[in-house]
Amino acid sequence: MTALELRGGPALPQERRLVTEIPGPRSREWTERRLAAVSHAVSTTMPVFAVAAGGGVVVDVDGNSLIDFGSGIAVTTIGNSAPQVVAAVQEQVERFTHTCFMITPYAGYVEVAEALNALTPGDHDKRTALFNSGAEAVENAVKIARLATGRSAVAAFDHAYHGRTNLTMALTAKALPYKLGFGPFAPEVYRAPLSYPFHDGLSGSEAAARAISLLDKQVGSDQLAAIIIEPIQGEGGFIVPAPGFLAALSAWCTEHGIVFIADEVQSGFARTGAMFACEHEGVVPDLVTTAKGIAGGFPLAAVTGRVEIMNAPHAGGVGGTFGGNPVACAAALASIRTIQDDGLVERARAIESVVVPRLKELAARDRRIGDVRGRGAMLAVELVDPETSGPAVALAKAVAAAAHVRGLILLTCGTYGNVLRLLPPLSMPDHLLAEGLDVLEEAFGTAS
Predict the structure, then answer these.
(1) Burial of residue 210 (number of CB atoms within 10 Å: 0-12, 13-18, 19+)
(2) pTM (predicted TM-score)
(3) What's the pLDDT score for residue 344?
(4) Are 259 and 287 in contact (CB under 8 A)?
(5) Three-class secondary structure of residue 264 per DSSP
(6) How far is CA 444 from CA 147, 222, 368, 424, 438, in A?
(7) Which domains does the chain show, CATH number per domain?
(8) For residue 256, with 0-12 CB atoms within 10 Å meaning exposed, 13-18 middle and 19 or more buried, which class applies?
């Protein structure tokens, strides 16, 4: 590899290339160093160490070029080391790296807020506050909703994932690995059943009526500060609610003065073939939380919403030392320009049009695939035992492992761990996308 190739970005050859076994000798050496230096509580999916990434590939220390169906868990949506992001970050780093917006503000923070106020659903007056991670955004959205309403109860949904802080662990549904042994958790958090068409067979309105009835009876609409929901669930299994579910919940919230929070941390920024996933259902949330794909790989998150809600906390009630870091803000503005200039919302739809038919063809031949679902470049297959229809957890692990050794980065998810999720960067060229699907099909052929 040349120095130019090692920089990543568009110059990196867009090919799957295996020059060693996976993992190779140098990755195994680094794994030993990791085990001796890094807490064993921090796990990894792939047994390789990256040295470059760009377009649709990640290159490891042994020179293997892997097809990336993970995007760093939906972070590098526009591609790794995207040219506009690199240029904007380099320029900002040369100017200054930090002042703390709460001490000496700077234009980038304001420009990101202006962009989010314009881009998020709804044409009402909005305000934005910036943070570092999706969990921080969710935690602050709940804080803001509680203060704005004077209520304390918050409702989340089955299979939800909202983060790893104490409050967001309470909101998150899955115990292992996210919650087990880390309690007690924040109080006044309640859970309602989600619309899960593959399993419940309910229409959106029927599933919403079920959830609303439970919350009304077990919590009380006058006690709820907010409900929070992922318009398309992420870690919970890429579950797409039935049409009308989100709209019915939103209408109920409006009727009862409950803040409707859309957690778009994983689904936002062109990932689903819309700028934000709730646009597919015509839903306008009161608050939207964003992170992951917002800044091309830099840590940045936001809460954006109605001015009367966002301005409710007292001055100084919301903030953080690193929130809205100037380098991350520069990256975010460049990421948004890249999405708009390169037509990446449309590109996500094009990826769906290629991937979904391939997955459905595979499902027609393999009874172990129970469901194909998702939108845009946020797609998944749920694996089941064809005899019992129960979750095929071991199969999901086996398919993922078989894909990994063949040079395909592939992630699992779901409450039971039986869902394979596909999150290719929108910058991935068509030939690499097709080859990745070929590898996935091979992995199914060898896994049992």
Answers:
(1) middle
(2) 0.96
(3) 98
(4) yes
(5) coil
(6) 50, 50, 10, 19, 10
(7) 3-81+343-446 (3.90.1150.10), 85-341 (3.40.640.10)
(8) middle
Backbone angles phi, psi at 142, to 5 degrees: -65, -45
CA distance 352 to 355: 5
Give pLDDT, residue 339.
98
Take residue 310 and report the two structure tokens written for it.
């966002």
Tokens found for residue 318? 């919301």
Q: How far is residue 198's CA from residue 446's CA, in Å, rounded to a whole number?
A: 26
Beta strand 50-54 pairing with 369-375: unpaired
Three-state DSSP at 275 gives coil
Evaluate whether 356 touches 377 at the Cβ level (below 8 Å): no
Q: Give tens-digit pLDDT for 201-245.
A: 999 999 999 999 999 999 999 999 999 999 999 999 999 999 999
Helices and strands in the chain, H and E counts: 15, 15
Pull the structure tokens for residue 154: 């918050």
Q: Express each pLDDT in 35-58 by its tens digit.
A: 999 999 999 999 999 999 999 999
- The low-confidence residues of the chain, meaning pLDDT below 50, are 1-10
Q: In this structure, which amino acid lies at residue 73?
A: I
Angle at 421 between CA 35 and CA 26, to 5 degrees: 30
What lies within 8 Å, CB to CB, of 77 at 6+ separation is 71, 269, 270, 271, 292, 293, 335, 339, 344, 377, 425, 426
DSSP E strands, 326-377: 369-375
**How far is 172 from 316, CA to CA, in rounded Å?**
28
Residue 8 has a pLDDT of 43
